[in-house]
From TrEMBL:
Its main location: cytoplasm. PROSITE patterns: CB (PS51900), TYR_RECOMBINASE (PS51898). Pfam families: Phage_int_SAM_4 (PF13495), Phage_integrase (PF00589). The lineage of its organism: Bacteria, Bacillati, Bacillota, Clostridia, Lachnospirales. This is Integrase/recombinase XerD. Keywords: Cell cycle, Cell division, Chromosome partition, Cytoplasm, DNA integration, DNA recombination, DNA-binding.
């Protein structure tokens, strides 16, 4: 029954939207309880360089759950590369096969330990799904240890650097983009997807759709509201997007363009280290904690599922920790 549903959803994913697929999934779940379906036995033919059906179905399930297009593409590339470079059926893979694949991949590509462990996590997600779907009995990745990597602590912008960035922003779009990133703490993917209708200037709130299309609200301070109003008032296009390209056809601003704007602002500001949208998100979180926000409050604003992720920002604020220590330990 489950296999029939998976295959049906995989085929329909070429023609239906994610919302439509969810409805079909719900209908099939109910209908299939009333029938018995027996699969015809046929010879299995393996075609080289084709995507295994299991991977197709897995990606469809992730799409239904609301995974972003960029994340889906990352999962797809990772799994296709894996499938094309092993000589076995994906259902017959062992822990040693995965260890060997990761070792060969590391030697063949110039990647860090963190990127390599990301591949392991994608494979783990895929095989956990296959266990849940009763396609295989055990997840082989469970026996593959996480790859230890030296995590570099990203230092947030100092208050001086923050003001330097503000002063270096030249265009109305640059000013609005920087202030919105800092005030909301949004991910760059969330900024890309924002529409003008997501902004409520009366309440200073922004409706954001985060990972898995989960809705939450972020907030605009006075600076960001003023910068956004000026930018939107200057626009001559009819696009629904909050941030758009400067030239026709005024497409929604993409990840590369946003990163380029922030990089250029930092260069003009004379900041001698890489500055990118996620560093501004780090800065927002650290400044909130420094000024008295709790971890739970920062977690809610940033849209973190796990408190452990938010805890990273608390570790960054060593200066504040030292100040507290000096007050308490005489």
């Amino acid at each position: 029954m489950e296999k029939f549903k998976r295959e049906a959803l995989t085929i329909l994913s070429n023609y239906l939207t994610d919302d439509d697929l969810k409805r079909v999934d719900e209908v099939l779940t109910v209908l299939l309880t009333r029938y018995e379906i027996t699969e015809k036995t046929t010879d299995i033919v393996v075609y080289k360089n084709e995507i295994p059906d299991e991977i197709k179905s897995f990606l469809v399930s992730k799409s239904i759950k609301g995974l972003t297009k960029s994340s889906l593409l990352h999962y797809k590339r990772t799994l296709i590369n894996f499938a094309n470079n092993i000589s076995k059926d994906v259902k017959e893979i062992t822990a040693n096969d995965i260890r060997l694949y990761l070792l060969k991949y590391e030697h063949a590509h110039t990647i860090g330990k963190s990127a390599l462990d990301d591949i392991r996590r994608v494979l783990n997600s895929f095989y956990k799904w296959m266990v849940r779907e009763d396609i295989i009995l055990k997840n082989p990745v469970e026996k593959v240890d996480p790859i230890k990597c030296d995590k570099k602590v990203r230092q947030p912008l100092t208050m001086l650097e923050l003001e330097q960035m503000r002063n270096a922003a030249e265009t109305l779009r640059e000013k609005a983009l920087f202030e919105t990133l800092y005030s909301t703490g949004c991910r760059v993917s969330e900024i890309i997807n924002l529409n003008k209708t997501d902004i409520d200037f009366n309440t200073g709130r922004v409706k954001v759709y985060g990972k898995g299309k989960k809705e939450r609200f972020c907030f605009l301070n006075a600076r960001s509201q003023l910068a956004l109003r000026k930018y939107l008032f200057s626009r001559k296009d009819n696009s629904e997007a909050l941030f758009v390209a400067d030239k026709q056809p005024y497409n929604r601003l993409g990840k590369g363009s946003i990163e380029k704007d922030i990089k250029n602002i930092a260069i003009r500001a004379g900041i001698n280290r890489p500055v990118f949208p996620h560093l501004i998100r780090h800065t927002t979180a650290t400044h909130m904690l420094h000024n008295g926000a709790s971890l739970a409050e920062v977690q809610a604003i940033l849209g973190h599922e796990s408190p452990a992720t938010t805890q990273i920002y608390a570790k960054l604020d060593l200066q504040n920790l030292q100040t507290i220590h000096q007050k308490c330990i005489i």
